[in-house]
């Protein structure tokens, strides 16, 4: 169980770090949705994504939101679950704080996993940590897979491969909105398996547009343990107040 908890913290850290690239506003200077039909190369899409992210990061000043964390573990030695509700406060460029407003379930999971995730996110908000783990050409190799419809008019599908075998990077597929060049979704797994006891970890991120800003809607990590257990961490984001 101890190794499983460490892995859930690690997977949750990847999940939270991966959520950061689109946490900013759309910018009028970004090309319109007609770009889907423009047959852009992967390099061009990534360049526009990085440029738009820099512009958006300069626009987002502060926000508050309510988050609901739900952690379930089924397997050896016993089934356990816990929930944590928090109010999250962000102030540019790298300040994050959290107020716990509700909790239930296993005290061990609350203290050893969920509370440590909050500590990890405060640390991850630092500029150097974000740069080192950002979804960028510095950290990843991108391959264009095609495009698909989306709730926001269409997006480019890109395969991402980490340039370094580091535990906080990931590999998988992202979808980049063709209007705002912001990430709509990420479906991935860790670049490096954090523990022998883990068979597979799947990470899913979804974003939505709130008052012109691209912000996390939900994140889910599912970890399969070699002894047969399954751990699922889900975070739902709601009640955004932008400032």
Features:
single chain, alpha+beta, 11-stranded antiparallel beta sheet
Structure description:
- The chain is α+β, with helices and mostly antiparallel strands and 243 residues long.
- It is 25% helix and 45% strand.
- It is built from four helices and eleven strands, in the order H-E-H-E-E-E-H-H-E-E-E-E-E-E-E.
- A hairpin with a 2-residue loop joins strand 9 (198-210) and strand 10 (213-225).
- Helix 1 (2-18) runs parallel beside helix 3.
- The longest helix has 18 residues, at 42-59.
- It is globular and about 55 Å long.
Q: What is the domain total for the residues?
A: 1
Radius of gyration over C-alpha positions, nearest whole angstrom: 18 Å
Question: Which term fits the overall shape?
Answer: globular
Which stretches are low in confidence, meaning pLDDT under 50 for 5 or more residues running? 21-35
The helix tally amounts to 4
Oligomer: single chain
Estimate the helix proportion, in percent: 10-25%
Roughly what fraction of the amino acids lie in strands?
Answer: over 45%
Report the count of strand segments.
11
Instruction: Please summarize the sheet with the most strands.
Output: 11 strands, antiparallel
Q: How many angstroms separate the termini?
A: 42 Å
Mean pLDDT: 84
* SSE arrangement, N to C: HEHEEEHHEEEEEEE
In short:
The protein is an alpha+beta fold and 243 residues long.
Strands, helices and their partners?
Elements: H1 2-18, E1 24-25, H2 42-59, E2 62-74, E3 80-91, E4 95-105, H3 107-124, H4 127-133, E5 140-148, E6 155-162, E7 170-177, E8 183-190, E9 198-210, E10 213-225, E11 230-242
Antiparallel strand pairs: 1-10, 2-3, 2-11, 3-4, 5-6, 6-7, 7-8, 8-9, 9-10, 10-11
């Amino acid at each position: 169980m101890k190794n499983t908890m460490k892995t859930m913290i690690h997977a949750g850290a990847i999940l939270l770090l991966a959520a950061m690239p689109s946490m900013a506003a759309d910018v009028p200077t970004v090309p319109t949705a007609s770009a889907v039909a423009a047959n852009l190369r992967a390099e061009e899409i990534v360049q526009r994504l990085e440029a738009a992210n820099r512009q958006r990061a300069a626009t987002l000043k502060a926000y508050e939101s309510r988050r609901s964390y739900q952690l379930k573990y089924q397997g050896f030695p016993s089934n356990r679950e816990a929930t944590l509700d928090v109010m999250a406060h962000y102030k540019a460029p790298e300040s994050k704080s959290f107020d716990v407003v509700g909790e239930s379930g296993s005290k061990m999971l609350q203290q050893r996993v969920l509370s440590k995730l909050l500590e990890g996110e405060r640390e991850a908000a630092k500029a150097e940590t974000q740069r080192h783990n950002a979804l960028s050409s510095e950290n990843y190799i991108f391959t264009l897979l095609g495009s698909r419809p989306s709730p926001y008019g269409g997006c480019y599908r890109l395969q991402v491969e980490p340039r370094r075998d580091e535990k906080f990077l990931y590999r998988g597929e992202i979808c980049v909105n063709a209007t705002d060049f912001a990430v709509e979704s990420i479906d991935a797994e860790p670049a490096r398996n954090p523990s022998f006891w883990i068979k597979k970890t799947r990470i899913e991120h979804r974003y939505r547009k709130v008052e012109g800003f691209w912000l996390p809607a939900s994140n889910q990590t599912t970890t399969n343990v070699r002894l047969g257990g399954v751990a699922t961490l889900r975070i739902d984001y709601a009640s955004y107040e932008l400032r």
